[in-house]
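Batch 3, record 17
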Amino acid sequence: MNPVDPNRGRSSAPSIPKDPTPLALVALAVCGLVVLAAWWVLLGLERILERNQLGGTLLDAALVGVGLLPLLLLVPVLRSLRAAGQARAGLALKDLITARVKTAESREWAQYAIGYGAAVLLVFLGVQFLLANDGAVGATFFRLELIRSSFGLVLQAFWKNVWMFCVAEVFILVWGLVIAVARMIPGRAGQPIRFLATLYTDVFRGLPTIISIYLIALGLPLANVPVVRDWPPEWLAILALTISYGAYVAEVYRAGLDSIHPSQWSAARSLGLSFGQTLRFVIIPQAVRRIIPPLLNDFIALQKDTALVNVVGVIDGFNQAKIIASNKFNLSAVTTVALLFMLITIPQTRFVDRLLEQEKRRTRG
Amino acid sequence: MSFLEIRDVHKRYGDFEVLKGVNLKVEQHQVVCLIGASGCGKSTLLRCINGLEAISAGEIRLEGDRITGPGVDLDRLRRKVGIVFQSFNLFPHMSVLQNVTLAPVQVLRMSRAEAEARAMELLRRIGLEAKAKAYPDQLSGGQQQRVAIVRALAMDPQLLLLDEITSALDPELVSEVLSLLRELAAEGMTMVLATHEMSFAREVASKVCFLYQGVVHEEGPPEQIFGNPQQERTRAFLSKIIEAGRL
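Prediction for the assembled complex:
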């Protein structure tokens, strides 16, 4: 870094760096606050553990260890204070460059300490929330022995969710494409078909999924509709999810097909390919790649919405967990099913993010 | 009876009339060049001949058969009339070979082996047989445009329409495309081309048509149009082209 010539820079007077000491002191205060909060929470935890005869030297040692961790925050705080001192010294010697470098360093360490301190504080406050009412909050959601004893039952019922969304996804892929193509049929002859397809997507995208499920899976057998009335509720639920999500997925398809430049249609049709051949060989293969991320997003939503089928009496993971919860007056089994849902959906959302990032890079490059 | 007859063709987009009564005759083995300013209707006329745009009034006949209006089998028409576009419009997800064989296999029901053999023959002709497995984005603009021409030729068209096919090319790539056209012209391919390449039009055209405001304003042999234009508008247009150093 070259010294700035005060007579030739953007402004003629060299800027004198602001003293970073106050910020360093704020960092120190935050650090102290975090340590205090940590000890307060940990002491509460220890009391609860003792009352439940869970105390022990090993556990106490662990608690002390956790309690010492926030002290690590002192490292950046001390570095910040030291750099602030050096900055002041540099300023006293009229060494502007050193003063600026050290000021920046001091600020960076102070901000680092404050950022980490705030995060640690939030974590301990979260723990404190679970410990509230003498640990009743935590026990309501996380009673370990109940999670352990009910896990097999919940997992088994959760397979029903997995099975339902797998089957539904296959049907939705086909049904959504049918609707999307129906919305694109050209010419006057296609007009009524286009209108019906549009009406369909509007209706089912406008309806809350839970109501669609209720109306279809309960209503069809109630109305004694032939064939369908003998279906088990799982299949009725799959039918309802297919009809409901077919509308969303049709829109995804349509957006993807629309995104292919009209010149591709011209080129294909000019070679004598029919409307259907153009779709099949030229448009759909190009659209598929752009469709995958939004399609996966809809499927993630579908996977979560399989929990709604409990309204028609299907014993899925959530319904099973609810039964356990009302028997035991404790929600730990529901926590299990919540974790199971997260376990399958989070990797998929990450995957979608990566696909979108790739697509962005590809189209930018 | 001419090979292609365009009679009083109108084309309207809403209130905007692009073609206002175009009349044009093309004989077999002729090369007809459409020249004129941008927006004068050259591209629209070509798209109408191919049925990519429906005309608003008038009629177009190919070998005496009406090819516009209701009841025309456009897919069949397009087997006889090929078109090449300014922006190539190759299928980006297919290799060069797949681009060229798609229509012969799907439309003409040719066997894949036969279609590929013919495609390779055509690619060899333009010196791109080594690129048969390449994808369009791996080719230069000139190569892509030559593949697009070959893709149209693979259907064995009786009439080839070329819509400003060198306008999107870098100057040094134009010649490779034009020399392919020159060969096709020498072989007797009937072609209608919209172009800004005046010297090329002067060299290969059997007939040059100057389009102005949606009608054929002047037509005649290239010597007349470029050497001794009869109409004021044609002279004005050409003098601007000369000013721009394009002729």
